[in-house]
Amino acid sequence: MIFDALHYFETLASQNRLCREHGFKPAFCSGPDSIEGIMQEFQKTANFVMIDDTTDQNLYSEGVSYFKRRVYTVFVLASYRWDDMEDREQKLNLCREIFQQFVRRMIWDKEHREDEDDDITFLNVEKIYSKEFGRYTMSGVTGLYFMVENDEPESMEYEDEQQLESEWVTE
């Protein structure tokens, strides 16, 4: 069974106590370029956990086995009073703490839920990349994003010549 990362990160955002207390709304975006459109909702919602519903991926070989590596990106964003750098720092610290809580939960889930059907086995919690947004990246918004990999086995072999021929025209 393929790990449903989008649902997993949405659940983390909706069940995290700090996210709830500070009104972080889980939402989906399609890459960093679509964040601006979603941020129009900042008039109604001040804070978001946005899960990128597109992934970077590659296929690689480990000896005789193949794996598909999907890279998932999650944005933790909070609005601040535009001209108040102290408020910005407080909101950035809030985003940092949420990120730390997400990472701790991912590690716990990987260690304790490997036998369940959600197939979190291949989530790579040993290496999580994160980057904070600079002071002037988005006007009135601070936060960070993190990227986590999920490597799943991928069958790249043909069962027999008939299967090969069914996928290719050899005329």
Description of the structure:
With 171 residues, this protein is α+β, with helices and mostly antiparallel strands. Helix content is 33%, strand content 34%. The chain contains five helices and six strands; from the N terminus they run ααβαβββαββα. It has helices spanning 5-15, 17-21, 35-39, 85-112, 161-167; strands at 24-29, 47-52, 56-62, 65-79, 123-132, 141-154. Strands 1, 2, 3, 4, 5 and 6 form a six-stranded mixed sheet that branches. The longest helix has 28 residues, at 85-112. The protein starts with a helix and ends with a helix. The model has no long low-confidence stretch (mean pLDDT 85).
Looking at this protein, list some descriptive labels.
single chain; 33% helix; 171 residues; alpha+beta; 34% strand
Number of strands: 6
Q: Report on the biggest sheet.
A: 6 strands, mixed
Question: What percentage of the residues does DSSP assign to strands (E)?
Answer: 25-35%
The best one-word shape is elongated
Structural class: alpha+beta
N-to-C CA distance: 37 Å
Rg, Cα atoms, Å? 19 Å
Order of helices and strands: HHEHEEEHEEH
Number of helices: 5
Given as residue ranges, the uncertain stretches (5+ residues, pLDDT < 50) are none
Relative helix content: 25-40%
Average pLDDT reading? 85
List the helices and strands and how they pair.
Layout: H1 5-15, H2 17-21, E1 24-29, H3 35-39, E2 47-52, E3 56-62, E4 65-79, H4 85-112, E5 123-132, E6 141-154, H5 161-167
Parallel strand pairs: 1-2
Antiparallel strand pairs: 2-4, 3-4, 4-6, 5-6
